[in-house]
Amino acid sequence: MFDFLRFSSKNIGRKRFRSFLTMLSIGIGSCSVLLISLIGQIGQRAVTAEIDSFGVGGLTVSASSSLSLPLGEAELALIQSLPEVSKAQPILLSYLPVSTGGEAVKTAVWGVGTGGGQTIGLSLLQGRLFSSADLREEREVCLIDEYFAAALFGSQNPVGRSITLTAEGHTASLQVCGVVRSGGSITQSLFGEYIPYFAYLPYTTLQTILSDNGYSAIAVDVSQPGTEEQAAARILRLLEENSGIPEGYSVENMALQKERFSQLLSIVTAVLSCAAGVSLVVAGVGIMAAMLSSVGERTREIGIKKAIGASSRAILLEFLWESLLLSFTGSAAGCGCAVIICILGCFFLGISAIIRVEWVLLCIGFSLFLGVVFGVYPAVKAAKLPPAEALRA
Fold first, then answer.
1. How would residue 298 be classed by pLDDT, with cut points 50, 70 and 90?
2. Cα–Cα distance for residue pair 108/34, rounded to 1 Å
3. Can you count the helices (H) and strands (E) in the chain?
4. Binning pLDDT at 50, 70 and 90, where does residue 336 land?
5. According to the model, what pLDDT value does residue 52 have?
């Protein structure tokens, strides 16, 4: 084996530029396949995190706006009475102008309860979340997201300062009690001009400001994972029996929607990886062309080796090893470049990279497989050369 590697390396070194181009084509194909796979996995995780930060976990119960059905304390109590429900939290959402003394900016104002940290997915950075007293006494306090804090206060810790909210001709001054990481960090940074800032109030306070005792939705966490569909059916049946109006309420399974979106991203990643794999197959054809040229150039050498006792099997293995060495060197370099590009891209975007070793090994293994497939014909052709005819070349 050592002799085969040594001879293969020497033969590759004879035509350095041609060997470089062959390995470059393999490297580009391997880099494309691995990079698309890594980007797809990272993108899938990042988008899932964005969905979690924007939306609500578990189930989301809402009432039909066209039928003007109620969604308030009575409906919340009904939902909480079900054994399938572990927690239910009211949610209000309104887009209102908010300012800190200067120009007002569009803000998505959420009304949440004390469990907002679990239901909405708020991650506290500074200060505190809401307490039961904040809801009971309708205190004029708020949480803001980190982008709001940086843009309007120029600080990551504006706890204790105030913002002014205007709704229905009513102006309220709210004290910032905490800063959270929420609202979709990547989307916010890319589309900050169109995506509003986020502020969170005790839902009782927002109801008072809006003069509305209803809820925009009710977020529900189920007692046991995997029972979301059964819980959704029970909630719908209970609310419809209470209101006497069929199809007046809807329950959206956010976990199922997130899973479907992840599956869609996986399919897109697989399709793009297959498309990139075509370039790897084309690179394999380039290996065959290079090896056929090598057989033609080394016909007399093959004849001499056979004349002094080299077997057809030895000639076959020598050319196969040369093809494998080209494939391995090119694919290893390409996969290395893909990993470096992925790490650098994630570093500049501020997200954590996902480097799966099994994908790297699979990509290199597929390249070696192509090296064998496209190197067999030139190797067999070299092994079958008659010694007398090869010596006359």
1. confident
2. 39
3. 14, 10
4. very high
5. 60
How do strand 217-222 and strand 85-99 relate by DSSP bridges?
Answer: antiparallel
Transcribe 15-83 into DSSP letters.
THHHHHHHHHHHHHHHHHHHHHHHHHHHHHHHHHHHHHHHS-SSEEEEE-TTTT---SHHHHHHHHTST
The amino acid at residue 160 is G
Q: What angle do CA 40, 44, 46 make, to 5 degrees?
A: 115
What CA–CA distance (Å, rounded) separates 189 from 387? 69
pLDDT in tens, 211-246: 877 788 888 877 777 777 888 888 888 888 887 777
Band of residue 337 on the pLDDT scale cut at 50, 70, 90: very high
| ∠ Cα 239 243 247 (to 5°) | 65
- In this structure, the number of other CB atoms found within 10 A of the CB of residue 226 comes to 8
Please check whether residue 145 is in contact with residue 181, taking contact to mean a CB–CB distance below 8 angstroms.
yes
* The two structure tokens encoding residue 354: 């996902």
Number of C-beta neighbours around residue 157 at 10 A: 15
Instruction: Please name the residue that has the structure tokens 């698309």.
Output: 36
| Beta bridge pairs of residue 199 | 109, 144
Query: Could you give the residue ranges of the DSSP H alpha helices within 216-311?
Result: 228-243, 254-297, 299-307
Question: Which tokens hold the place of 357?
Answer: 């070793």
Q: What is the mean pLDDT of the chain?
A: 79
Closest CA to 27 of 319, 276, 317, 322: 276
Six token digits for residue 307? 């004349």
**Long-range CB contacts for residues 41-47, cutoff 8 Å, separation at least 24:** 41/269, 41/354, 41/356, 42/342, 42/346, 42/351, 42/353, 42/354, 43/265, 43/269, 44/262, 44/265, 44/266, 44/269, 45/354, 46/186, 46/351, 47/261, 47/265
